[in-house]
Amino acid sequence: MRKYIKNNVSWIGYMDWELETFHGDEYSITNGSSQNSYLIEEEKTVLIDTVWTPHRNDFVDNLKKEIDLKKIDFIVANHAECDHSGSLTALMKEIPDTPIYCTPACAKSIEGQFGKHNWNFKFVKTGDSIEIGNGKKLIFIEMKMLHWPDSMATYMTGDNILFSNDAFGQHFAVEELFADKANQCLLWKEAVKYFVNIIHPFAMLVGKKIEEIKSFNLPIDIIAPSHGAIWRDNPMQIVEKYAKWANAYQENQVTIAYDTMWEGTTKIAHKIAEEIHRQSPDTVVKVFNISKQDKNEIMTEVFKSKAIAVGSPTEVNDILSSVSGWLSFLKCLKFKNKKAAAFGCYGWSGESVKIIQERLKTAGFNVIEQNIKSLWKPTEEDFNKIPELVKELLA
Ligand code: FEO
User: Fold this and answer.
1) Which residue intervals of the chain are DSSP H helices?
2) Cα within 13 Å of Cα(189), Cβ side
3) For 174, which of 62, 146, 229, 290 could close a Cys bridge (C-beta 3.0–4.6 Å)?
4) 226 alpha carbon to ligand 1 midpoint, in Å?
5) Residue from 270, 258, 256 nearest 378 by CA
6) What CA–CA distance (Å, rounded) separates 67 from 44?
7) Is 55 a catalytic residue?
8) Which class for 126: exposed (0-12), middle (13-18), buried (19 or more C-beta within 10 A)?
C-alpha cells in the first residue's frame, strides 16, 4: 500500500518486519527493516528504486494496484545492490522499454547480476537533471563509494526531497514512516549501528560529499533514504551526525572484546574493566564475549570507544577462530584514532597476544606494548600488571 510523504510523492516499498539478517549474515536485524521505493506523480510519473528480489512480485502487484504501470515515464535506479534493484526483472517484463536513469556503474552492475536484457539505460552524472513537470525537476548526485561504486542520490526540486538511497538510512521498520514518529531511542541506536557497520569503511568520503551537497545550496525539507525512517523534522540532523561520526569519532568509552576456552581470559577481561573504572570512574566500560554477543553491536561500541582491549587464549599456535573472524571484520571498518591492547591465556606456546597486537596494528589501531599474557590461568602477578596497562590505554 502506498503512503504519501509529501504532495504527489509516495512511499511504495516493503516493510520487512521478518528480516533477521542482511548482507547474508553479516548484519544482524533486531528491529525489522524496510526497502523504500518512491513514486512521484507529477506531469511525469517516476519510480525511484525498487525492493529486494524475494519481494519483487508483491512489489509489482502493489504498484499495479496504485497505477497503470504504462504510466511510468521512467525509473531512477540510485543503486544496483539487489535490495533496491531486485524487482527490476519483474517490473521490466511489464514495461520493457521504460528508461532507467542511473550511473554507468549501476547499469553494469545490474546487468552483471540480472543478465543483459537490452533495458533502456540512460546514464547520468552529478548535476544532470530532468524535468518532471509542474515546474519541478530531478537532479542527480553521484555518491560513489557511499557505499558502492554506482551509488547515487536524487534530489527533487519544488518538494525539496533528497532521495539519498543507502546514506542516512537505518535497518529499522517504522510503519509510520517518519523518523519523528519512531521510538527515538531505537531510531538512533539503529542509525548509528547502520553507519558503523555499512558506511564507516568509507567514512573518509562522507565529509567531502556532505560539503559538496551543501555547496549546491539546495533546500532540503525531507531526506528519504532507501532503508528505515524518513527524515522530515529537521532532516539535516542526520547529516550533521554523519559529519561528526565520520571524523574519527570517539566518546569517553573503552570496550573490551574477548573469547575464552576455560575462563582464564574472561577473568583478565573483567579485571581490566574493573581497573578502568577504578582509574577513571567517568569512563564508560563495555565488555563483550565475541562468540556470544552480536558482532555488529560490539562494533558499534568499538566505534564509540577511544580505546579497546582484545583477548584470546592461544589455540594451536594461533588465536580462537571467533576472535580471528572478528578481527577481520574490525579491519574492514577502518576505525581511526583509537588505542588498543591485547591479552590472553596460554598453556604452552603462547602466540595469541603477539598475533592480536599485529592484527590490531593492521586494522589501524595504536597498539600499546603493555599486555597481559597469562600461563594456564591468571595469577596475582598477572593481575598486578593490569593497572599499568590501563594507565597506558587511558593516557
Ligand atoms: Fe541497501 Fe547498498 O543496498
Assistant:
1) 56-66, 82-85, 88-94, 104-114, 184-194, 203-215, 236-245, 264-279, 295-304, 321-333, 352-362, 380-384, 386-394
2) 14
3) 229
4) 8
5) 270
6) 13
7) no
8) middle
Listed as own residue / partner, the contacts of 378-384 with beta carbons closer than 8 Å and 24 or more positions apart are 378/264, 378/267, 378/268, 378/271, 378/345, 382/268, 383/268, 383/271
Atom of ligand 1 nearest to the CA of 151: 2
The C-alpha atoms of residue 147 and residue 199 are separated, in whole angstroms, by 6
Encode pLDDT of 94-137 as tens digits. Answer: 999 999 999 999 999 999 999 999 999 999 999 999 999 999 99
**DSSP-derived pairing of the beta strands 161-165 and 222-225:** parallel
Beta-carbon contacts of residue 3 (< 8 Å; ≥ 6 apart): 10, 11, 177
CA dihedral 85, 87, 90, 92 (to 10 degrees): -40
Report the alpha-carbon distance of residue 16 to residue 175 in Å, rounded: 10
Instruction: Count how many Cα atoms sit within 13 Å of the Cα of residue 362 in the half-sphere of its side chain.
Output: 13
Integer Cα distance of 271 and 212 in angstroms: 47
Q: What is the pLDDT of residue 52?
A: 98
Dihedral Cα 24, 25, 27, 28, nearest 10 deg: 130
- Is the pLDDT at 277 greater than 90? The verdict is yes
The one-letter code for the residue type at 34 is S
Query: Residue 1: is its pLDDT beyond 90?
Result: no
Q: Does the Cβ of 84 fall within 6 Å of ligand 1?
A: yes
Pairing of strands 161-165, 318-319: unpaired
Question: Which cell numbers in the block locate residue 46?
Answer: 517516476
The length of the chain, given as a count of residues: 395
The percent of the chain in helix, strand and coil, each rounded to the nearest 5, is 35, 25, 35
Closest Cα to atom 1 of ligand 1: 166
Secondary structure of residue 368 in the 3-state scheme: strand
Give the integer Cα–Cα distance in Å for 317 and 322: 15
- β pairing state of 307-311 and 253-258: parallel
CA 23–ligand 1 middle distance (angstroms): 9
**Do 200 and 335 meet the contact criterion of CB atoms below 8 Å apart?**
yes
Which pTM does this prediction carry? 0.97
